Amino acid sequence: EMRFVTGVQTCALPISGVYFVVGQSICRLVNRDSAKTGLKCTAPSTGGSIANINAIKAGDMDMGVAQSDWQFHAYNGSSQFEGDKFDKERAVFSVHAEPFNVIARADSGIESFDDLKGKRVNIGNPGSGQRATMEVVLDAKGWTLDDFALASELKPAEQAAALGDNKVDAIIYTVGHPNGSVQEAASTVETVLIPVTGPEIDKLIADNPYYAAATIPGGMYEGSPDDTQTFGVKATFVTSADVDEETVYQVVKAVFDNFDRFKKLHPAFADLTQEQMIKDGLSAPLHPGAERYYKEMGWM
């Protein structure tokens, strides 16, 4: 019996841990065919993207979920993976978008990202994905933390309350939608989602394969009836070249042969398309097992 493990991320807010749902969902579909394939899948919770990549690299896990930017950095030996390149990293598919979100109090007068200048903004805790993305955006715009009246470093779990208590004018969050924490903020106080667009953002998307434009659908949160344009990363499913072709083929087959069922397992999956999933946000080479299935289906 072959056994593989998907690494998934737990989040500070269990209701917003979409990564956990990705792992559980893939395992559910794989395990439906266990009798036929001999594959058994379990999805423990882990510390997130970097922990998952390191566990796959060490051979402790066969597959796992990671943000597209960390997939890129691991394969290229950049950022936190400098001097620690994961040559054998292989892409399987991407899942939902994780947009960079800016949520402001409606009474703050903030309507665009540039309006954040001179305001009280929660920029995220050091070491978090959203803080890293915020720093990338600030660099692109030539801003520093001194451009804010206050730059607080609250964790995701604390920031909705801070917005409601008028301790900050705006918060940032990199997360898939719909999200419990954003819903909590929007129902506590009148809020607006702020677009993150413009020439600097277009350049970030053009220069970095792991970023993509993203749309937060209108009507998902109180106070934001229209679509909001921003950019962000993708949640991606990765593996190692050491994992055999048949295993990866059967996992991919379980997901895409049951695609309608997969899309119903979480609201963040509802708009996924096969075309996007096999190319968007993937910077490591495709695993041969995944490639075999996509070619069989005539998708590549």
Task: Give an overview in words.
The chain is an alpha/beta fold and 300 residues long. The chain has twelve helices and eleven strands. Strands 1, 2, 3, 4, 5, 6, 7, 8, 9, 10 and 11 form an eleven-stranded mixed β-sheet that branches. 36% of the residues lie in helices and 23% in strands.
Strand element count: 11
Return the average pLDDT rounded to an integer: 87
Secondary-structure element pattern, one letter each: EHHEEHEHEEHEHEHEHEEHHHH
The whole-angstrom Rg is: 19 Å
Poorly predicted runs: 1-16
How is the biggest beta sheet arranged? 11 strands, mixed
Q: What proportion strand?
A: 15-25%
Which structural class do the helices and strands define? Answer: alpha/beta
Helix content: 25-40%
General shape:
globular
- Straight-line N-to-C gap: 31 Å
Q: In DSSP terms, counting alpha (H) and pi (I) runs of 4 or more, how many helices?
A: 12
Quick rundown:
The protein is of the alpha/beta class and 300 residues long.
Tags for this model:
23% strand, 12 helices, alpha/beta, 36% helix, 300 residues
SSE order and pairing:
Elements: E1 2-9, H1 18-32, H2 34-37, E2 39-42, E3 45-46, H3 49-58, E4 63-67, H4 68-76, E5 89-105, E6 120-122, H5 129-141, E7 150-152, H6 156-164, E8 170-174, H7 180-188, E9 191-194, H8 199-207, E10 212-216, E11 228-240, H9 245-257, H10 259-263, H11 274-277, H12 288-296
Parallel strand pairs: 1-2, 1-3, 1-4, 6-7, 6-8
Antiparallel strand pairs: 4-11, 5-8, 5-9, 5-11, 10-11
Helix pairs in contact: 1-9, 6-7, 9-12
